[in-house]
Design goal:
ten-stranded mixed β-sheet, binds iron/sulfur cluster, alpha/beta
């Protein structure tokens, strides 16, 4: 029962507050015990912390997974995985032990006594359901069979190559560029948006190969930046810079920092989470310290951007690596996660992750991207409506500077906050966006301010009327432009019907 009293002339409720939709609780980080997996029963802590041991023991195929997991998983799981590799995967398998060890962590085991799920069906069910497994080790049965790909999914869905101004250098926004220095990573994510270029070819995807020698490509990138003083911000990426020999990366960064007009440099490395051992190597940290000192002297913000999607991935080793990088002089370590169904598509999952990073690992939550429209990604993608709902749901819990923005990377536009949509046909799942700048491929006669750009929701999330529309109009033979034009006509018709 509630009563009221007066405070400053206003009634004050004495009722006990109802529980919050999300209840914050500080959680200590946990490094799952790798010895619970049969293949690592004898691996020592010294081996585990050794980056060379981690790289040498990456899991690259179902047979190697079986060597680690043994009979914990059923034969049916291994068959499911192999079928996916043969028929669906856009990325080859590459899992450092550190990352595999965060799947079905011991803290998620059911009893307080840390009772492991029994080998076989029970453990396999837990493994199937695991959020890290769902995006790092996709299996055939994860994917949708009705619409495995959106009809307008494309290999280079963000058209980054179209906007290359030098090989590997995407100039999309007026003041910032993306430099893809190398096409490899220490780990391969199933949903990688650069699946066109990054990693080894799979039966489904023959990867694009960079033509130039790395040293020539890097010099061409620097040359463009020297000639283009309107660019002040460079994302140094790939791939993952953790796969570049440090001396080569340091040489590139030294030359980049000599360009007076560059004011922000962001190093992209998911390895901070997937292979934190890399960023804990003393020689690497010494190198980071040298580069960070130069950046500081020149007033340049040098940060590292990582890619963490689930709270269980933030382990004590990840926190140690993040804090070591900050101690070495980086201005910030920030996270750019990807929003995916079955991985982190609830407010609770996102907030748990953000608090683990911010409280325990000094990683600033920054962005969650909606998963891009690449082939075979429909089971991961969420609708714009759901993303807007999540953005609303996570507001107010974290400090403002650490409240991540959920963004849609709209083809030919770039990142837009999900509430920036211009208009949205929720029946057909088509959203319309505008931009306020030209990319490097737009000529001066294109009226960018009045042009609309589209993004599509996954079709299976639509109500039946919308799904029926796509069955009638979504033939992959139709071009993107035809579909957009048809959708815009439909939108105009529905607006005139509504307004008329
Ligand atoms: S780390 Fe980044 S670039 Fe590498 S596979 Fe994952 S998403 Fe792609």
């Amino acid at each position: 029962m509630s009563t009221t009293t007066e405070h400053a002339g206003r009634p004050v409720s004495q009722a006990r507050p109802a529980e919050q939709p999300y209840v914050y609780q500080q959680q200590a980080l946990v490094e799952p015990d790798w010895r619970r997996y049969p293949g690592w029963a004898d691996v020592t802590e010294e081996q585990w912390r050794d980056v060379q041991w981690q790289r040498a023991h990456c899991v690259k195929n179902a047979a190697q997974l079986r060597q680690v997991m043994g009979d914990l998983l059923t034969d049916a799981f291994y068959a499911d995985l192999e079928r996916d590799q043969a028929e669906r995967a856009t990325m080859s398998m590459l899992l450092p032990p550190q990352m595999l060890n965060t799947m079905v962590p011991d803290r998620s085991w059911p009893s307080a006594a840390q009772q492991a799920p029994a080998a076989g069906e029970e453990f396999t069910a837990a493994f199937y359901a695991d959020p890290v497994r769902r995006y790092m080790l996709p299996v055939f049965s994860d994917r949708r069979t009705d619409w495995p790909s959106h009809p307008y999914a494309t290999r280079d869905s963000l058209h980054e190559h179209d906007m290359w101004v030098a090989e590997g250098l995407t100039h999309r926004y007026p003041t910032k560029v993306l430099a893809e220095l190398l096409p490899t990573c220490p780990q391969y994510c199933g949903h990688c948006t650069r699946m066109d270029l990054v990693g080894n070819s799979t039966p489904q995807v023959t990867k694009l190969k960079m033509a130039g020698r790395p040293t020539d490509r890097h010099e061409a990138i620097l040359d463009y930046l020297r000639r283009t003083p309107t660019v002040r911000d460079v994302v140094v990426s790939g791939g993952d810079v953790a796969n570049m020999p440090w001396k080569n990366l340091e040489s590139f960064l030294d030359r980049l920092l000599q360009i007076d007009t560059i004011r922000d440099v962001r190093l992209a490395s998911k390895a901070l989470m997937g292979l934190p051992q890399h960023w804990l190597v003393p020689e690497t940290l010494d190198g980071v310290h040298r580069v960070a000192s130069t950046a500081r002297e020149r007033g340049v913000g040098l940060a590292l951007h990582t890619h963490v999607n689930a709270a269980q991935s933030v382990t004590p080793l990840v926190a140690e690596a993040s804090r070591a990088l900050l101690s070495a002089g980086l201005r910030d370590v920030r996270n750019q996660g990807v929003l995916m169904r079955g991985v982190n598509d609830s407010a609770e999952a996102l907030l748990d992750l953000c608090f683990a990073m911010a409280d325990e690992a000094s990683i600033t939550p920054y962005y969650f991207y909606m998963c891009d429209m690449i082939p075979f990604a429909e089971h991961w993608r969420v609708s714009l409506e759901h993303a807007q709902h999540l953005q609303h749901s996570i507001m107010g819990y974290l400090p403002g500077f650490a409240t991540p923005r959920i963004v849609c990377d709209v083809p030919f536009v770039g990142k837009r906050w999900v509430h920036q949509v211009d208009h949205y046909d929720t029946e057909r799942g088509i959203s319309y966006w505008r931009k306020n700048y030209r990319t490097s491929i737009e000529t001066e006669d294109v009226d960018v301010a009045s042009t609309e750009y589209v993004y599509y929701d996954p079709i299976d999330t639509l109500l039946e009327a919308g799904q029926a529309w796509w069955r009638a109009h979504g033939s992959p033979e139709r071009t993107h432009q035809e579909a957009t034009a048809a959708a815009q006509v439909s939108h105009a018709a529905s607006v005139s019907q509504r307004d008329g």
